[in-house]
Amino acid sequence: MRFYPEGLLYHQPENKLGISTPFQLKESMASQKILESKAILCDSQHNLVVQLGCMKGFIPREEGAIGIGEGTTKDIALISKVNKPVCFVVTGFQEQNGETIALLSRRKAQQICYREYINQLAPGDIIPAVVTHLEPFGCFVDIGCGIPSLIPIDAISVSRISHPKDRFWVGQEIRTIVRSLDENGRVFLSHKELLGTWEQNVSQFHAGETVGGIVRSIESYGIFVELTPNLAGLAEYKEGVQAGQNASIYIKSLIPEKMKIKLIIVDAFDAPPTKPEVQYFIDEGHIDHWCYSPDCCSRMIETNFQFPLEE
Question: How many CB atoms lie under 10 A from the CB of residue 21?
Fold first, then answer.
């Protein structure tokens, strides 16, 4: 069974078939198949009503997510699902006001996801995720069946950003890498290792070229400009330049042994926000070790997934 972040199963043909008729729902119940459909209502007791293909479904509050019954998950996790696809397994049927209602459990779908997918993950595994919300300290993602995890802001990219919104948007499908797991089933993620090494990024540029960049910070000794999410250089100070502006950048020199790029800002200007696609140098499989630094550089930036840091 493949486990999707919520919303990605919704339009799949096998999902549409699974909710299409009462017979298919009963077949799905017998096999404990995970399905998705849109929640149309959260009532005053925080039970979710789901519109299936052939009838309505009902997710009791305690079945809305792992931790709701115990109080470790807040009810906002249910309220916020209205008008969005939710995952579930069918647990039964009941008659209500002359119509048949399917009884559903999102909690059990999440338990299956933990047992058959998340608990099998190891540090260094590359997995898909969907961005659910952004906070100043990091990016929350759904790694399967609505189960949340966090990418800390300093693990998003090598080039520093002031807020995760500089890199991601809600609903975006991304790739992440498992940094570590704890005994409570929490998964800690990273992202920067998938965006390439210094050499891989710098190979796209050459001294003497003028290219586009984004101003990231203004310092007394110069201005840091991002060329790619994992590559930034230092430009000479220029009056009137502000963080967040787009810029035309002249590449003065590339210095691998110091892992530095010297730049000159030709022009800096405000531009409408965009949603650029992430360029991954690796987007599937598993890695044990990642080294950002060139071999000729004494300064080491690396991640060893075989010996993950304790969270």
Answer: 14
pLDDT in tens, 50-84: 999 899 999 999 999 999 999 999 999 999 999 99
CA distance 292 to 193: 8
CATH superfamily of 122-195: Nucleic acid-binding proteins (2.40.50.140)
Q: What is the pLDDT of residue 311?
A: 41
Other CB atoms closer than 10 Å to residue 218's CB: what's the count?
A: 13
3-state secondary structure 158-225: CCCCCCHHHCCCCCCEEEEEEEEECCCCCEEEECHHHHCCHHHHHCCCCCCCEEEEEEEEEECCEEEE
Residues 264 and 249 sit within 8 Å (Cβ to Cβ) = yes
Architecture label for domain 13-115 = Beta Barrel (2.40)
Q: 148-186 in b/e burial notation, b at 16+ Cβ within 10 A?
A: bbbbbbebbbbbebeebebbbeeebebbbbbbbbeeeee
Strand-pair category, 246-255 with 289-291 = unpaired
Q: How far is CA 91 from CA 60, 113, 241, in A?
A: 11, 16, 60
Q: How far is CA 35 from CA 8, 21, 42, 91, 209, in A?
A: 11, 13, 19, 12, 52
Q: Which helix (H) or strand (E) holds 58?
A: strand 56-59
pTM for the structure as a whole: 0.92
In the CATH hierarchy, which fold is given to the domain comprising 198-269? OB fold (Dihydrolipoamide Acetyltransferase, E2P) (2.40.50)
- Residue 262 CA to residue 251 CA, distance in Å, equals 6
Spell out the domain ranges in the chain.
13-115, 122-195, 198-269
Residue 66 neighbours by CB under 8 Å, 6+ apart: 73, 107, 110, 111, 114, 147
Residues of the chain with pLDDT under 70: 308-311
Instruction: Please give the span between the terminal C-alpha atoms of the chain, in angstroms, as a whole number.
Output: 30
